Amino acid sequence: MTKAAHPPSKVALQATVLKGAPPKAELRHIPWSSVEVEALNPLLGRHFVVGQNVMLARVLLKKGCIVPEHSHHNEQITYILEGALKFWIDGKEIVVNAGEVLTIPPNMPHRVEALADTVDLDIFNPPRADWINKTDAYLR
Predict the structure, then answer these.
(1) 4-8, 44-48, 57-61, 68-72: lowest mean pLDDT where?
(2) Domains of the chain by range and CATH?
(3) Which residues contact 2 (CB under 8 A, 6 or more apart)?
(4) Burial 33-57 (b: 16+ CB within 10 A, else e)
(5) Burial class of residue 123 in the structure, from the number of CB atoms within 10 Å of its CB (0-12 exposed, 13-18 middle, 19+ buried)
(6) Collapsing DSSP states into helix, strand and coil, what is residue 119?
(7) What global pTM score does this model have?
(8) Per DSSP, what are the bridge partners of residue 92?
(9) 2, 8, 50, 125: most buried by Cβ count inside 10 Å?
């Protein structure tokens, strides 16, 4: 791991936590193929399933895709299924390859670059309200 080339800007996203009572917990069986992929930009797509207290997102990044620096109140676990992502986080550059996991504490600024076409699973607790409400302009 090497030091990041620039200091973090600590961009904190607003409204990333749902207000009010959480949705009702229920048993569901959902094939990914039945969940529409939302194209956020030409290099980035995602689809997600939301439970009562957790969200699972399948994120599709084309090589060269950049997720701008941001932070959120949600704890995040990222598992790379295919490809590789480079994270600039906590003053470090960390490459996460297929089969590897990165845990990101709440409020930790990070940015990402896809080093190859990548499929990743992101788990958020609590669910990302900005994704659900489509108020995540930093990705669009």
Answers:
(1) 4-8
(2) 2-14+54-139 (2.60.120.10)
(3) 92, 93
(4) eeeeebebeebbbbbbebbeebbbb
(5) middle
(6) strand
(7) 0.85
(8) 3, 89
(9) 50
- Is 7's pLDDT higher than 90? no
Please state, in angstroms and rounded to a whole number, the distance separating the CA atoms of residues 41 and 30.
Answer: 25
pLDDT value for 79: 98
In the predicted model, what is the mean pLDDT of residues 96-101? 98
Helix (H, G, I), strand (E, B), or coil: what is residue 31?
coil
Three-class SS state of 102: strand
* Amino acid code (one letter) for 82: E
Query: What percentage of the chain exceeds 70 in pLDDT?
Result: 87
DSSP 32: G
pLDDT tens, position by position, 34-53 = 999 999 999 999 999 999 99
112 alpha carbon, distance to own chain's centre = 10
Distance CA 68, CA 45 (A): 15
